[in-house]
Amino acid sequence: MATSREYGLGEFTFPRGWFMVAESAKVTDKPMGVKYFGQEFALYRGKESGRVILLDAYCPHMGTHLARNSTSYVAQDGPVEGDSIRCPYHAWRFGPDGKCNHIPYSNGPIPPAAKVRSWPVKEHLGAVFVWHDPEGGEPDYELPVIPECSDPSWVPLAFDDLGVVESHTQEIVDNITDVAHFGPVHGSITQYFENEFKGHIAVQRMGGGHRTLTTAGGPMLETEAVYHGPSLLITKMSGTHDSYIYIAHTPVEDGSAYVWHGLMVKSPTGQPQYTAEDTEIARQYQAMALAAFAQDFEVWRHKRPCIKGLFVQGDGAFLKQRAWYKQFYNPRAMKRELLQAVEGVHRARGMDGAPPEAVKPVPVAAEEVVS
Ligand code: FES
Ligand SMILES: [Fe+2]
Q1: pTM here?
Q2: 335 phi and psi, to 5 degrees?
Q3: Which residue CA neighbors atom 1 of ligand 1 most closely?
Q4: Residue range 314-365, pLDDT digits in tens
Q5: How many CB atoms sit inside 10 A of residue 184's CB?
Q6: Rounded mean pLDDT, 181-193
Q7: Is residue 206 within 8 Å of 226, Cβ to Cβ?
């Protein structure tokens, strides 16, 4: 595995953005130890407010991990009190703001240094996201809204937890521009393919057949895959069923990532309120979508890092995409400058098919030439 520095991404080791840290349903008042951005955290749901709290893991008293313990009586009795959490070692208690608010055996004052960092989190689309910013700033973009989430005809999003892949996130993000892998890996017959970059958004529009996800003679598979920031990819797919594919990846170490996959599907039997049968069909379709994603995953698991690709005519706009991705690894002040040569619509040279107007309302502005 290679590091952010080796990819030449920028000043930061880990990018700025919203990152998924857990499925909402799995976060309870039983704290979980999780690792992202090369550091340990304690993640739990407050009993009082029901909100999710993410703290730096190590207790300032003597360095104990707040959430990786099952045998201490503090842990056995339930370390979460209200929205606070007790350390399993000497039972210091920390509030959701990270400040120690009780030391059970000490009558002296609580020192101001008795605190851990509390991270900004949001529950959205059935997942928990943290805002990570090496500069410590407020979020500069919002998480995307999927209007169909509140439409009763859609079978709700369900997650596949894929665990850690020992690849730098750059290798995963490369996928959005990788037109030439669709045929060999997924059996796609690509009829049109293009990328568009704008601010924190990267789009891939593609249409064609697909051996994993469509049947011979079936409808054309048309997808619009959108990166909302560096880590969350939402793909709108029309083909056998209207659906959204959800893929989130969060750096664990500098060179590995935790990955989730998910799918929501419009009632395959055409009901205004989805049924048990719809759920069954949706989960089968999800298994097929996961099989398609697993085709990419297997390549990532075993490839060596692509620090500098040997790109040829017909490859996608990798260089533009990698330049787009750099915005998240550098100070915000550099964002405009980094995006200047990147924003717009790009096609691989030789890929002349244009998306139908219904799919692509944006006019083609430029042609990417990769050499
Ligand atoms: S190490 Fe946490 S209370 Fe002592
Ligand atoms: Fe792929």
Answers
A1: 0.92
A2: -60, -50
A3: 62
A4: 899 999 999 999 999 999 999 999 999 999 999 876 665 555 554 443 333 3
A5: 10
A6: 88
A7: no
| 114 CA from centroid of ligand 1 (Å) | 10
Ligand 1 atom, smallest distance to 92 CA: 3
Cα 48 to ligand 1 centroid, rounded to whole Å: 23
Amino acid at 255: G
Q: To 5 degrees, how large is the angle CA 353–CA 359–CA 364? A: 55
β-strand 243-251 against 257-266: which pairing, if any?
antiparallel
Domains of the chain (ranges, CATH numbers): 17-132 (2.102.10.10), 147-346 (3.90.380.10)
Q: Both tokens of residue 361?
A: 């309302």
User: Which string of DSSP letters, residue by residue, matches 295-321?
Assistant: HHHHHHHHPPP-SS----TT--SHHHH
Question: Quick one: tokens of 54?
Answer: 């993410």
| 130 has a pLDDT exceeding 80 | yes
Pocket test for ligand 1, best of 72, 90, 93, 110 (most atoms within 8 A of CB): 90
Rounded to whole angstroms, what are the CA distances from 4 to 107, 171, 330?
Answer: 47, 11, 11
Choice from 61, 72, 94 to test ligand 1 binding pocket (greatest atom count within 8 A of CB): 61
Q: What is the mean pLDDT of residues 282-309?
A: 94
**Residue 33 neighbours by CB under 8 Å, 6+ apart:** 40, 41, 42, 43, 57, 65, 66, 67, 68
Selection from 325, 333, 369 nearest residue 351 by Cα: 369
What is the rounded CA–CA span in Å between residue 165 and residue 247?
13
State the distance from the centre of ligand 2 to the C-alpha of 9, rounded, in angstroms. 23
- Which residues' Cβ are closer than 6 Å to ligand 1? 59, 61-62, 64, 87, 89-90, 92
Find the mean pLDDT for residues 179-196.
89
The SS3 of residue 325 is: helix
In angstroms, what is the span from residue 84 Cα to ligand 1's centroid?
14
User: Which residues have a Cβ under 8 Å from the Cβ of 326 and sit 6 or more positions away?
Assistant: 9, 10, 338
Residue 260: closest CA among 12, 25, 13: 25
Find out whether 146 and 263 touch, Cβ atoms under 8 Å: no
